Amino acid sequence: MTAGTGKTSRRGKRRHGGRSANIRRGSAAIRQVPWTLPQNPDVPTEPLDEEGEHAVHDAAMRVLEDIGIDFLHDEAKQILADAGCTVRVGSGTVRMDRDFVMEQVRKAPERFDITPRNPERMVRIGDDYMLFGNVGSPPNCSDLDRGRRPGDRESYRDLIKLTQYFNCIHMIIGYPVEPVDIHPSIRHLDCIHDALVLSDKALHAYSLGKERIEDAMEMVRIAAGLTPGEFDASPCMFTNINSSSPLKIDFNMLDGPMRMARRGQPVIVTPFTLAGAMAPVTIAGAVAQQTAEALAVIALLQTINPGTPVVYGSFTSNVDMGSGAPAFGTPEYLRATQMSGQMARFYGLPLRASNACAANCPDAQAAWESAFSLWACVSARVNLVYHAAGWLEGGLCASYEKLVMDCETLQQVIHYLRPVAVGTDDLAVDAIREVGPDGNFFGASHTLERYETAFYRPFLSELNNFEAWEERGSIQTPERANSIWKQILDEFEPPPMDDAIREELEAFVALRKEEGGAPTDY
Amino acid sequence: MTAGTGKTSRRGKRRHGGRSANIRRGSAAIRQVPWTLPQNPDVPTEPLDEEGEHAVHDAAMRVLEDIGIDFLHDEAKQILADAGCTVRVGSGTVRMDRDFVMEQVRKAPERFDITPRNPERMVRIGDDYMLFGNVGSPPNCSDLDRGRRPGDRESYRDLIKLTQYFNCIHMIIGYPVEPVDIHPSIRHLDCIHDALVLSDKALHAYSLGKERIEDAMEMVRIAAGLTPGEFDASPCMFTNINSSSPLKIDFNMLDGPMRMARRGQPVIVTPFTLAGAMAPVTIAGAVAQQTAEALAVIALLQTINPGTPVVYGSFTSNVDMGSGAPAFGTPEYLRATQMSGQMARFYGLPLRASNACAANCPDAQAAWESAFSLWACVSARVNLVYHAAGWLEGGLCASYEKLVMDCETLQQVIHYLRPVAVGTDDLAVDAIREVGPDGNFFGASHTLERYETAFYRPFLSELNNFEAWEERGSIQTPERANSIWKQILDEFEPPPMDDAIREELEAFVALRKEEGGAPTDY
């Protein structure tokens, strides 16, 4: 298969008659950047020289060749054995030689598109594109009014609405909070239903057993009005899997991707390599292990369906050696992400990382950890930033206020990524002459012609002076964010969906609920 | 003159007998990084291509050649006229042709050292060195207990002590707060006295009239136990001046630097080019104007004393076009600083920028604005970061808590700047084999040998989980910082100073106070 292009004509065949949804629709609660697919013009920061890159590659290859990875999935082992890999009898350990690995990895596209039910929300993963996903998978959520609490369907829907609202969030990279009030057997049905109805952005499905991933693919297909053949023809959704580092890939983390790969749907492979815990305490060692684990799965998927869109996922950070707790937005995270960027480019693969933080509340620590994470992502030339908006507590909590705060910084990053103009008019020598030593530029024609769009205009940052700020109640950032998300939710309108499609989707959910959904132990 | 080296022998002649102060002295309030002069190993981010660099240069040269800069200082004008520049009769406008400018700029050193009274506190400005200065010049200060208030001598001394305490702050770049309870005629005497007694780090003197800068030079000379000739032989202190943008340099901003240059003391030249207000609304135009203004002063100083250490100062940010207020840590600030870095390297000059923010309190906005500013400084390869710790409100307030918070992020940047190791031991293939798929790295010998120093260990960030954090009172970052500065001040011990030097310094202050200090209108 080939990824990416040539989707316009098939989209014209959609059952809803090709009516294009308006992505500028929605409330005017805040001043937003327009929907855009940002491209990163900067030369990436590369802590490794060429020799260092090869050393990390060689270490990863030695792990794959000499130590091996445990694949806890019989069919996966068989496929790899058939392809010439060494499967140790009586265990799941698979050793692959570097020629095999590299041959498979080379089949993966450097770039691919994912087209969700609204083709205007197409996203492009790879090259110099830099896209952002919402927070994914926390068990808890919090806001200033209700405090921290386990996620439920209401908060799930709220956070999906906020994700849909913000143009700076390109994709739904997981449940923004786990709705624990829905039984796990049917949670995926309600969650994906809600995400498809409340949003028209590309969405992720969890690889948690055959039923869940198959149901998700079917629901995305229905929502997009595609035939099964059309669905299989190019990416419409995606999944992310984590290895059980060190050196182990669980059944579900293989079974879902294998099903997705067979239907040409993208798989992000993200080893969970926290340095000092599940990976070596050295950043080079952790990135080497991360590379080995990621490439092992990518090689399997390319063996199954050559050309399957895949992403090299970097999650390498460090634990705090005092407490053993994961730390994020650290100097080590910066360097690990940049080194991961080098390895992704070395293999010609798109890169995923995260906008992560460890803070327990949306305070200054949360902000600097997240800003350092965004610095990591820009300087590493990350293509897809997971958890870009809303994450707290190392992923244990989704914060309504933090989501809004993060969108302010994401908008700034998007603005930052625009190329700098240095034409004659930009250099403004005539304007400098016109204003002269006794004037100012506020009223200059050069300024007036440009001031509406010259600079990024924040929606959340307070730029009034102290006295004005104090007079209005000394409102700190999270409190300002609190007002904003309420306004957005109050004014939220879901994107259009054809009635027939909505009915088909609901019928599918009802049927699958009758059948019991996905099997669970409880 | 030549800057930089060969100072060890003269330092041996110090009156205090060459006893070396211990820079590791002081309280153990927090876990600090050691005193070090960090070097930035990253390739800088360069938004301009070569043509763009030349375009900015050409625009700056056209400003200098065709429009001119107003020098409000008769002697300066005469010196420039004598050197062949065109001085317009009846005004202060000086036009310089590009050959003259470039000839003068080339005389400035690419790197120089400043050696304060404690030679172990020598700082190196230029090349890939990246040093940090405290907050400078706010009229107000704040802490969580006493709120925001005008600065006084007590708060001035407090903030100097904190500046002295933190190893990540290399220099005193100005009064950390203006002590408005000291009459301006003698303020400089008390302030410089206190800075010299409470700190042994390199310090800045304001260029605010002949008396103040001359007194400051004399006091630094006395504190270092130097003869006038020794003082003149190499840099011992520094000043910073701002142009009155657009296109104007006030009398004091020229008089001080001319006096410093004649004695071989470094001058940082920082145009105040807020885009959209005192400079064009386009970043390219603002940087072009900044370059013109900075080079105009640098050319004058090199004419006066070839080889005078100078620094190209970048302060270009944007105003908020809604309120007209200055904005900091913005996308525009990032790009302007990076472009300034390119221009500084183009001219072979060290670069100054700032860790700036606009926020009114030490909340999330302050943290992300500062983190973005630090990102700007690292990616631009800034040599000297002004206002690195403690600045709020666009420079109108010095915050005790923000100072501590900033030091946490400065320490992280210093840790980040360390080179990444990729030796065989770092790649850790043997450790990965040893741990295997069923283990973890917490107890691995590879981890145990390294865990004390493997990662940056924060002193302020909270890495305990939510429950533990909540149990201890849900203490947010500024409150934690509040406890830390109190402990530091409680335990503070000033660096050693020879009694004879202290007496001489006090006698000088008393004498100058008797003489009336510096003249004022009030």
Account of the 3D structure:
The structure is a homodimer of 522-residue chains. Helices cover 43% and strands 12% of the residues of chain A. Chain A has 522 residues and is of the alpha/beta class. In chain A, α5 (153-165) runs parallel beside α6 (184-198) and α7 packs antiparallel against α19. In chain A, β2 and β3 form a beta hairpin. In chain A, the strands form 6 sheets. A 6-stranded parallel sheet of chain A has the order 6-18-17-14-13-11. At the A-B interface, α2, α10, β15, α11 and α12 of A face α2, α10, β15, α11 and α12 of B.
Envelope shape of chain A: globular
Individual helix count of chain A: 19
SS-derived structural category of chain A = alpha/beta
Helix content of chain A: 40-55%
Radius of gyration of chain A: 24 Å
Beta-strand proportion of chain A: 5-15%
Can you tell me the residue ranges of chain A where pLDDT is under 50 for at least 5 consecutive residues? 1-22
Task: Determine the N-to-C terminus distance of chain A.
Answer: 40 Å
- Using DSSP, what is the number of strands of chain A? 20
